[in-house]
Amino acid sequence: MVSRILMLLVVSSLLNLIHNGVAEGVTSAFIRSEWPSVDIPLDHQVFKVPNGYNAPQQVHITQGDYDGKAVIISWVTADEPGSSQVQYGLSEGKYDFNAKGTFKNYTFYDYKSGYIHECLIDGLEYDTKYYYEIGDADSTRKFWFQTPPGIDPDAPYKFGIIGDLGQTFNSLSTMEHYMQGGGQAVLFVGDLSYADRYKYNDVGVRWDSWGRFVEQSTAYQPWIWCAGNHEIEYMPYMGEATPFKSYLQRYPTPYAASKSSNPLWYAIRRASAHIIVLSSYSPFVKYTPQWRWLAEEFKRVDRKKTPWLIVLMHVPIYNSNEAHFMEGESMRVVYESWFVKYKVDVIFAGHVHAYERSYRISNIHYYVSIGDAYPVPDKSAPVYITVGDGGNQEGLAGRFRDPQPEYSAFREASYGHSTLEIKNRMHALYHWNRNDDGKKVATDSFILHNQYWGTSHRRRRRNLRRNISVLCDFKQAS
Ligand SMILES: *[C@@H]1O[C@H](CO)[C@@H](O)[C@H](O)[C@H]1NC(C)=O
Ligand SMILES: *[C@@H]1O[C@H](CO)[C@@H](O)[C@H](O)[C@H]1NC(C)=O
Ligand SMILES: [Fe+2]
């Protein structure tokens, strides 16, 4: 009898152990698809190949220099190389300038890419609308873009922030909502096409369809690219083991302009913002090229010229979702003290397919021996925002950790995108816009106070008050 009870006890505690072990393993490693989301079929009109023999497709632009006076224009021609030239000018159809680019092609398994053109146009005027035309003979196509205002501490500018976009109907909804919102450039936080969800030649095919899908925005305004894990495409089973191959062939960045040695990490300045792009999937620990470069880049930041200091990375450093929990720890340990030291305003990340915003917190006093490691309020720390909710085929990460940690200010597992509307050196309006089944609904929003001018302004105001009261005392006395 006693031994039966003992047996039962042993079995039930064993069962408990197994149950707990399994439950934890599954929740921490698996991304749940609460609302299964499938890719838009290839024959859908959003992927339509433009009419005409060898017509340029997948047109996209990005900033081409450090300060916003240059643009890199990229596109693909399918039938033959054709011209890599861009004609451009200040009015439609009247092109006073032209620039000559280059083209390349690559293979991925048996897939052969089209001819990928890349053309830098520089020496542009600030705050100016340019019209441009690409392609040959009867298959030319026309677009336009607007250059940003010059580097100025009070230059207003509206950025969109999109992550983990993919090519589903949810992705389409995110695109449509972003385009209605009047954003002037996109800060893209990684995971572009999700083509790596396919095998063999379909990988290349889905990169092409994604390029045609996003062209409605990317041909007209720069998207500032940051690489995610879906760009790695380490696929040795089909003989493809060069990381980031398709991404690097297709999406150039102006890395050399910020003295970076690698297109995966770089910085640009645009209007009143200094934007630093990091690579979560490239070496970043002390003494690596990315670490050395970032140390120098932070020194180049001049908050008197560009008050807004923004960092983009794919893997969030603060995340209270079950999905990808703690994946950002290694980068946090290496870089967080710099983010605080240089008073970064905001860090945008993706990867987790949900939305989350943190308070200003840091966890840099990490004493392993006494276990004192918990995020604490820190006025010099950035706000961390995860916008991995663009709408790809993996679905939403619907399970947040319970209870919500004190550092987490707002979190919701819905599709959407964010906007950051810089008003002047002092403040910016921030919005997270949930797609909400087709309607655009502003949800989380607040005024972001600049980390550099916000605090020095308070000091200035205090001084001013003190000086006035000194003045009053003086008047009364006299
Ligand atoms: C690039 O295109 C040329 C001309 O069509 C072709 O001969 C070559 O095999 C292609 N190279 C790759 C890497 O696909
Ligand atoms: C107030 O006075 C201090 C010196 O007492 C000066 O440094 C500061 O610039 C003044 N502030 C303003 C806003 O006038
Ligand atoms: Fe990701």
From TrEMBL:
Homodimer; disulfide-linked. Its cofactor is Cu(2+); Mn(2+); Zn(2+); Fe cation. Keywords: Glycoprotein, Hydrolase, Iron, Metal-binding, Signal, Zinc. Its EC number is 3.1.3.2. It is an enzyme of class 3 (hydrolase). This is Purple acid phosphatase. GO terms for molecular function: acid phosphatase activity; metal ion binding. Belongs to the metallophosphoesterase superfamily. Purple acid phosphatase family. Residues 1-23 form the signal peptide. Residues 381-441 form the Purple acid phosphatase C-terminal domain. Transmembrane segments: none annotated. It catalyses: a phosphate monoester + H2O = an alcohol + phosphate. The keyword Repressor does not apply. It comes from Cinchona calisaya. It holds the Pfam family Metallophos.
